[in-house]
Amino acid sequence: MSASTPAPSPPGSGPADDVPFLPSRHTGLLMAAVMAVSVIQFLDMTIANVAIPHMQTSLGASIDTISWVLTSFIIAGVMVLPLTGWLSDRLGSRNLFIGATALFLIASMLCGAATSLTEMVVFRALQGVAAAFIAPLSQTIMFDINRPSKQTQAMSIWGMVVMIGPISGPFLGGYLTDQLNWRWVFYVNLPIGIPALVLLWWLLPSRPRVKRQLDVFGAAMLGVALCATQLLLDRGNHNDWFEATESVVEVIVALSCLWIFAVHTSRVAHPLFEKKMVWNANFLSGLWFMVILGITNVGLSAVLPTMYQNIYHYGVMETGELMVPRGIGVLVTMVITNRLMNRVDPRLLITVGYALAAVSLWMMTRWSLDMDSDLIVASGFVQGLGLGFVFVPVNMIAFSTLAPHYRTDGSTLMTLVRNLGSSFGIAAIVTTLSRNMQVSHADIAASVTSFNLPVIDPASASAQLGSIGDAAMAMLNGEVTRQAAFIAYLDNFDALFWLLLAIIPLAWVARRPKPVDRPVQVAE
């Protein structure tokens, strides 16, 4: 926002000022509509992943090209996401949110009807553009239409979708693909989104339009940097990282454009994001926590289903059921957090939350190949309890010292760093899994000799037993691979455990926000 633009007055300090920034009719019904749109948007981050093999067959794509169905969604989103605040000011928050919702539903319908890979990639890119606007605007709306004393409750409700959506996406996608077909992972958005769109048209108020100058050069540099970063994270493992020229070029482009953006922002009069907002201590700490939340929630959620299926041989439905306890844990502590926020220091809640999440990862490092599902359920539930304690306090701390007119840009940055954390987490976990598997496979295979396999000599099995020996050796190699993969997963759990322990003290860097039932004047 331009420095000369008068900001809306924030709440005062008395009970009479406990009013929403944007009063609305039927606030509960409007919240339900916003939540419905958020549900389908967050589900689409992961729901299509399990349907990729079916899409590949139906669309006649190769293993390499079908990955662009996921990549196009991510890249298109990160390129336009930084523009959310400026577009909201110029077009009006109501027009942008309703337009993005309509575009998302149309793109979902087109994705379900796609007959070629080219069509699917284009339509997924459109869906990614719409989704990029929906995420930060939905958070801003939840803040704006609720009284300050009710904002914690609103964030608890919205946070349930943010936390549970990526977890439940693979389960729902697998169910729809098995019971109907892969096209329904997109069509499912329509019966949820269309009624929500009607309610939004009826009830959604708008922030006032502002003639805000766009930092075109800064937006372009940041967009290119984000695009290069996402391409690197998404394709790096496939390209063997810096062994490929593509990855090297992406790193150079990302770092160069990010440096240019930072220098340009420090000097320009009207930057893309106001310096006063970006350098706010509470907001900065919230951004760091969102990065870790993206790694631990979305990143871990992306690889656990693969582990359950490949290591423990659970089916798609069973795998989805094993992810449910994490969601239940999140729901439980979100409800508890809503009641504790005005009574307990939110920094303590964050500390307890990450401590519980660290305990769950420590429990996961004690898993074994012959255990039953009870330990998976228990650790998942504890992890959900911990993550549920984190989301709402982080958001309330981050926004507690920001004026209302910064909310859209603040929500945009929070969404951006959470998505980057998710992408980084997935890339780091998948890469370390792959490399640790190779090391562990070599170590285990070196110990498989005729001395500990007295029935068969591995070195001469094929020559002595022919096809039977080949089959036996294939089974033996399969078990070695399974055990090597299991060790690699445990190594990842151990690394995440230490990461969470290290991040806990950061909660105490932020200032404690004032109780939300006694709103205070925030600095402009």
CATH architecture of the largest domain: Up-down Bundle
Q: For this structure, what is the CATH homologous superfamily of the largest domain?
A: MFS general substrate transporter like domains
Q: Could you tell me the number of beta strands?
A: 0
As for the CATH topology of the largest domain, it is Growth Hormone, Chain: A
If you compute it from the alpha carbons, what radius of gyration comes out, rounded to the nearest whole angstrom?
24 Å
Query: Largest beta sheet, briefly?
Result: none
Q: What is the succession of H and E elements?
A: HHHHHHHHHHHHHHHHHHHH
SS-derived structural category:
mainly alpha
Average predicted confidence as pLDDT: 79
Summary keywords:
0% strand, Growth Hormone, Chain: A, mainly alpha, disordered N terminus, 20 helices, 524 residues, 3 domains
